[in-house]
Amino acid sequence: MHTSSANLRSTEIEIIKIIEAASRVESRGLLVGPGDDCALVRPPEGEDLLLTKDCMVEGVHFSTDYFSPEAVGRRLAVANLSDIGASGGRSIWALLGLGFDPKRPISYYARLIDGLLGALKEDNVALAGGDTVASPRGIFLSLTLIGKTPKGRSISRRGARPGDVILSSGSLGGSHAGLLALTQKLTTSIPYPMMRCLKKLHICPQYPKGLGEALLEADCVTSAIDSSDGLAKDLRHIGEMSGVRCILYKEKIPIPRPARYLARIMGMRPYELALRGGEDFALIWTTPSERLKEARRIASSLGHRAFEIGRIEAGSGLFLEDSHGLQKEVLEYGYTHK
Amino acid sequence: MHTSSANLRSTEIEIIKIIEAASRVESRGLLVGPGDDCALVRPPEGEDLLLTKDCMVEGVHFSTDYFSPEAVGRRLAVANLSDIGASGGRSIWALLGLGFDPKRPISYYARLIDGLLGALKEDNVALAGGDTVASPRGIFLSLTLIGKTPKGRSISRRGARPGDVILSSGSLGGSHAGLLALTQKLTTSIPYPMMRCLKKLHICPQYPKGLGEALLEADCVTSAIDSSDGLAKDLRHIGEMSGVRCILYKEKIPIPRPARYLARIMGMRPYELALRGGEDFALIWTTPSERLKEARRIASSLGHRAFEIGRIEAGSGLFLEDSHGLQKEVLEYGYTHK
To answer: Which reactions are catalysed by this chain (chains A, B) (predicted)?
Structure first.
């Protein structure tokens, strides 16, 4: 259809120029980069490739009210880097689909691309190409990331076994608490330092760089997922795909202090934030108990945590266990049986 | 941010189920398909990979007024397959980013996916994964396609040389004429059979399957591009990136008869439709004149045409030449000097 006027076209060309200028990263495997019909890349010998794609939509995954353009770009990169990491791989090339809203100035997109490419460069990922199109009803972003992993080796969601320990590389529920704080107008009821911390947890999530790859190499991981949809949904994926039961230790889920504070204000239980939340981009993984010590050593050597949050048993379903050993089943979307 | 309610989530899950059920294509290189954090693929030995991405936005690239959902999906596939083809490759894997508008019924997306996967399957492309997200302000689609090509060999836009012939695998301007017919309310002034043909040219474009790959293998191509942005812009890319001048033969541009008819009604010159139009997805390529006969033979053996539409000279710029040898320079977006 292409209703794009000459004006839209010139915006598009400006944005493409910014992307091309910013994306000149040396990458041995990238033979032809942005500017042709396709990028041409040479896959590393003896390795398999991991493919992932994550989209972000204005008004659904981010609001321009409290996300800076740099933070939007950075979050898009982190969501994708986290997926490749959770599969045990190392990211190499990216393709960006950008739907730009022509009502925003070019400088907005320059800043967004700066945030995106900054985060990609930290991981030595080259932007190989993409597509820039007008999207007058709001920005959308679609990033494809291609990573590598030794032939025949990757972490899937299918490998958890009874006796395995469930670990998390970071705290959980913080991003969701941050979103609630920002959208439920709780700004005045939360002390400023806590509010600042909550905002940061939502807007500027971290992912445990290099951890999946190192755990896979050291045979310290049987299954993994990144915490993007909330612990309940994420662990249910692992449980169903591995054919096992997941037991979560209610008191051991690492929830940031400001998130606990917010839960109290809102009359929620802190663990509900972790179960229903998501987008923390911590690595949730399972390790055979005899490899637990080594897994902890690896995480620590990379500067990441390894919280023991549960165990795998034979059976099915997801259960929350308190310190007295009492269990409750966790239902869809993180609600528990009363 | 994820404002997605349980309702949106269940729509998302339904759509993902449809995609997963429909995408079970046997593909030797696809080790892990949809359902994990990443897809895992084994790149074919001794080959390089081509990467491309094409986005489509409701209201910009297609209107649901006259595009069936199947046609939307099919067009997305064709736009991407055409890019891999123009680089001389063969498509293998796809990743779909789908922003669904929850106001449309699930059946709409089932039909869209059917059109997309049908077109991908015709070319033995496996859907390896993707991301499905809510997009309440209108549908967007982002397809990433990964293809293969023999190591170190691909067609770029940089290789055209003085003396080369410019060829087109199909007629041009038809898709743009179809769009004008549909949007300028010309339905009553165009005879029905012509209108039907114009609609089809816009809604259901064809691309020359296998042609780029065969021309590359036979050393019959120095540069190529798919006709997606209009002949003026597309040839300007080739001219600028190859550092040459492109001469187009005004009377020899193959314009479908209904498009010529529409041009007359609208007071345009038919060639303007081809110059400014686009989205015909024909292959535009250059061949050394001594390889012209072989190039024609290859195109014909695959059931495609090979219209001789111009030549390459030393210099720069894009010129339109009439049958008397008179030349006019073609300016930005297909307008000519008066």
So the answer is: thiamine phosphate + ATP = thiamine diphosphate + ADP
